[in-house]
Amino acid sequence: MKYIKNTYLEELFEKGVTKAIFDNRRNFLYCSLFLAIGTQAVVTPSLTIGISEMGVVISGLILIVISLLLMVLNILEGIHDLSKLGIHTYIYPFIILIYFLAAMRIVVFAWGYRLH
Question: How many domains does the chain have?
């Protein structure tokens, strides 16, 4: 057990880094699903029953804006956490690119699920 307590992994657990990573991923998933719902509402407003098509499009656009704002906030929080760990700043654009590509992939998955 002495070996485990002195490892880098134990240090990450004690600092709460792993909890922050999973919280960030959970928030990312929520934002991506909100983005998928909003884009689906804008693309196919006629599938919604009980609300006018214009109301569905407006609510979809509002949901897209809210999800994008939350994604930016989540990215900024993640970068702030990474800066505490001493990660080099030239890696940040790659992290942001991967973040948005993964978000778009989740949107495509949600659209595919909706169509089948």
Answer: 1
Model pLDDT for residues 4-30, shown as the tens digit of each residue: 556 766 666 676 667 777 788 888 888
Average pLDDT over residues 19-43: 83
- Does the pLDDT at position 75 exceed 60? yes
Look-up of token digits 């699903």:
33
CB atoms within 10 A of CB 6: 9
Residue 32's CB: how many other CB atoms inside 10 A?
22
Length of the chain: 116
Query: In which residue are the tokens 């922050």 written?
Result: 20
Q: Where are the alpha helices (DSSP H) in the chain?
A: 2-5, 8-15, 17-43, 53-85, 92-115
CA dist., res. 79 & res. 58, Å (int)? 32
* CA nearest to 28, candidates 86, 85, 103: 103
Domain that holds residue 111: 2-115
